[in-house]
Specification:
Two copies of one chain form a homodimer. By secondary structure, chain A is mostly helical. Chain A has two domains: about 40 residues, Arc Repressor Mutant, subunit A (Orthogonal Bundle), CATH 1.10.10.60; about 160 residues, Tetracycline Repressor, domain 2 (Orthogonal Bundle), CATH 1.10.357. The first copy, chain A, contains ten helices and no strands. Chain A binds a DNA duplex through α3.
Chain lengths: ~240, ~240
DNA sequence: GCCATTTCTAACCCGCGGGTCATAAACTGC
DNA sequence: GCAGTTTATGACCCGCGGGTTAGAAATGGC
């Protein structure tokens, strides 16, 4: 053996490519720009990948596998929960019973997990969303979105049957609200350098979605970070001023 | 004068181009595909437009002008409202006072109007969202989204000061929820043939955002269409079954 | 040092698609 | 029908960027 290959080359190429994809989309990214960004020549690219699409596909593959795992884990957890505890009823929600709280905790946990997964691939997520039209990856996120809407719609429908949620809005609308919210939050992450306070975000969203934006009857405690991961970006604290 | 120009040519080109943009994005759309789709030759395209970007820009310009008008109209209406009525207070929201209801009606009206505008350009909106990365139009919708989040954040913050909304969630999060929801709903419109029931959608969203998804204490009436525009797509009626 | 071997470079090829233009076609006025 | 004028065509040009490859560079084994 002779002339060992540059061990960082592949990693550097992937990193540079991800940046280029963000800048110009899958179609718009130029291989020469990618290689120049890490001091390599165009030819070097083809020592590691067949095409930029293949590279993108690899990273997307990793990402989607992780997401898939998350989705499956949630499904299992949720079905296990209902097997063990039976459906939530109106009184569970009204009185915030232990079962209800346990269910919420489960949802929070999985929402947080999904957000964290997306955080690590927020650049790719961004590109899938806004820069892969007309490529093989076209529609990937949007199909995922559709499936999630469907899932939430079905879940909402079951809740309706037991009076555990309001019945005066179409379930699809609720699905769009939840998924749209998380979708934008995920997209917004692509603008951040440091990870946000996931707990604050998820807890706030859950509170809003569950209880609405109108002032509650009970006294309010601030949604707070259990575990402030990294620098907190949305640390705005409410002043609770009231004239 | 001799040989009058085909009077539908320009319109046909625009229509065909919009379809192509949806299929392949701004970059991916090919001029020959556009012209062939309306039985014209490539050269004919350049009798009407300098480039596909110029064509796209024209339509985007129309769209953004309409949106701008809507945004400005809302701003004026809202400031006029607060000039006339003063800020909403906790009791307005709690008791659903006339002022509060008037304010809500205003918001509903403008949300509905914006959705209707987007409806007419839902294809363009879709392309701006997911198929204009790396072009001059890159980021247009996302900047709009950012501005809207900011607007809602500011408004929420004022509400907080008067106790007219919950104070235990960051205002940005609320902004992301509202804008994300409408963003996804707008995007979903690109999949529909016939216009949805705007009133049902907007009223349901308002109800959810204001009061949350948990079952309310008051008896629920179905959100209904005042004016069912066209075929209603999300007409699912709730069964209100409760075991 | 020198060969063998693998890595890496940069010049090259080539197809695709945007943009042009000589030419043909269509129409008006006479 | 003919001249004049505007519209439309499609062959052509050409640059850009993906992919290839001959050969240079680097390194290990001897």
């Amino acid at each position: 053996m002779a002339r060992p290959a540059d061990p960082n080359a592949q990693g550097a190429l992937i990193a540079a490519a991800r940046k280029e994809f963000v800048r110009a989309g899958v179609k718009g990214a130029r291989i020469e720009d990618i290689t120049h960004a890490c001091g390599l020549s165009k030819g070097a690219f083809y020592l590691h990948f067949d095409s930029k699409e293949e590279l993108f596909g690899q990273v997307v593959g990793e990402f989607m596998a992780l997401v898939q795992k998350r989705v499956k884990a949630r499904e299992e957890d949720i079905t296990a929960f209902f097997m063990r505890n039976g459906p939530l009823r109106e009184q569970d929600v009204r009185k915030k019973s232990a079962r209800h709280e346990a269910f919420l905790a489960l949802e929070v946990k999985h929402d947080r997990g999904l957000l964290e997964t997306i955080w690590n691939y927020r650049d790719i997520f961004d590109v899938l969303m806004r820069g892969s039209q007309g490529t093989a990856f076209d529609g990937l996120v949007w199909e995922m979105v559709q499936r999630e809407i469907e899932r939430i719609k079905d879940s909402f429908e079951i809740f309706k049957q037991y009076g555990a949620c309001r019945t005066d809005v179409p379930s699809e609308i609720f699905g769009s609200l939840v998924v749209g919210t998380y979708l934008l939050v995920a997209k917004q992450m692509s603008l951040l350098q440091a990870p946000p306070n996931f707990d604050l975000w998820v807890e706030s969203l859950h509170r809003l979605i569950r209880e609405g934006s109108a002032p509650p009857l009970q006294p309010q405690r601030q949604a707070k970070a259990r575990r402030a991961g990294g620098k907190v970006t949305m640390q705005r604290r409410n002043k609770r001023s009231r004239p």
